[in-house]
Design goal:
Keywords: Hydrolase, Lipid degradation, Lipid metabolism. The protein contains twelve helices and 13 strands. It is an alpha/beta fold and 367 residues long. A hairpin with a 5-residue loop joins β6 and β7.
Length: 367
């Protein structure tokens, strides 16, 4: 069921995906230019970093903060490839990814000097390959944590408890957020060490769920909500032709499938609720005081949701190391792709003529 579009609150949902996260920065830049200002940003891993740069800065400084982070992250390989695509570009990207793996990323992480098996068992040095102290310094430089915690934008990031395996969200509506919460959301093992929060160790939330969409759907209110769901891995792809392509395809499926599952599950719940409401009207009067019926009637779904799904489709020359290929040329390409997908979606007749649902969830994939 749909009705005319009027005011909607906006949420920005950002997947994890390392270097691919520059796509999200381009998406956000285009959203800002079109005056779609999110009142809620939720992220996992690199999505948590981008979310912090957005929520932790005033509107007029958000793009500059994103640009500062991504310029620093891509400064290790600042020169362009002599090849725009094809095998030459693939070799350049693979060499760039290898460089990052060996030398780290400025303002993000540095390789440990000693082999992990020579370190004290149980220490951060023994269970990870890189030191993420530079990321803390970068976050403290680029994010105003007072604004992030006390400002108007809701902020949520996901991580997984190493000891229990339980997935948790750190939300500025119920706790003070610091650099450690963002770092925990992006602490992907075995590269990065777990981050201690309140005496508990946490790893990257993408281990359990690479998208925070479910948090937004579960915690939304009754008002209409427009969600910009920004995925860095595409669920659809070609049949692999080599072991390297098989590895890449497996990674795409593993990190993309949660979005589809979440939206499908919520649509089923909405359909069941609608069927239950219709059934209530058909029951005889003697069921009016039945406690089970009262319990079912008390359940009400939240407000209607429109999800604009923006997916980084990737390029043919990308390899299995695309999520840690931080060359300047590739980062700029991801950023531009995000911008173009937003503009393409907004130019679609389906977007221009869309009507806001009065209940349930509507998903649009227009790029």
């Amino acid at each position: 069921m749909t009705g005319q579009v009027d005011s909607e609150s906006c949420a920005l949902v950002l997947q994890g995906g390392g270097a691919l996260g520059a796509y999200q920065a381009g998406v956000f830049e285009a959203l800002m230019e079109s005056r779609h200002m999110p009142g809620w940003v939720a992220g996992i891993s690199i999505g948590a970093v981008n979310a912090a740069l957005i929520a932790g800065n005033p509107p007029d400084k958000r793009i500059a903060a994103l640009r500062a982070f991504w310029d620093k992250a891509s400064s290790r390989v600042p020169f362009p490839s002599p090849f725009a695509d094809g095998w030459g570009r693939r070799l350049f990207n693979e060499a760039s990814a290898a460089t990052i793996a060996l030398t780290g990323i400025p303002g993000f992480f540095t390789p440990r000097l000693c082999a992990p098996w020579l370190e004290q068992p149980g220490s951060p040095q023994a269970i990870s390959l890189y030191d993420t102290a530079p990321l803390r310094a970068t976050l403290e430089e680029l994010v105003d944590f007072d604004l992030l915690n006390d400002g108007p934008v809701r902020f949520s990031v996901g991580a997984v408890n190493v000891l229990t395996g339980n997935f948790v969200y750190f939300d500025n509506r119920d706790r003070r957020i610091g650099p450690e919460h963002i770092m925990a959301s992006g602490a992907l093992p075995p590269g990065f060490p777990p981050v201690m929060i309140d005496g508990e160790p946490y790893w990257d939330g993408g281990i359990v769920s690479n998208t925070p969409l479910q948090q937004v759907l579960d915690q939304r209110g009754t008002d209409p909500l427009l969600v910009f769901q920004v995925d860095l891995f595409s669920a659809r792809g070609m049949m692999p032709r080599s072991l390297a392509e098989a590895t890449q395809r497996e990674k795409d499926i593993r990190y993309s499938s949660r979005t589809r599952m979440n939206t499908d599950m919520n649509k089923r719940i909405e359909a069941l609720e609608a069927a239950a409401q219709r059934l209530f009207a058909k029951l005889p009067p003697e069921f009016a005081d039945d406690p089970d019926l009262a319990l079912l009637k008390a359940y009400r779904s939240q407000g209607p949701v429109t999800i604009l799904h923006l997916i980084n489709r990737g390029e043919d020359y990308e390899s299995q190391g695309k999520d840690y290929e931080f060359s300047r040329m590739t980062v700029e390409g991801h950023w531009q792709a995000g911008r173009e997908d937003v503009l393409r979606s907004f130019a679609s007749p389906r977007w221009k003529k869309r009507e806001r649902p009065t209940r349930g969830i509507v998903t649009l994939d227009l790029a």
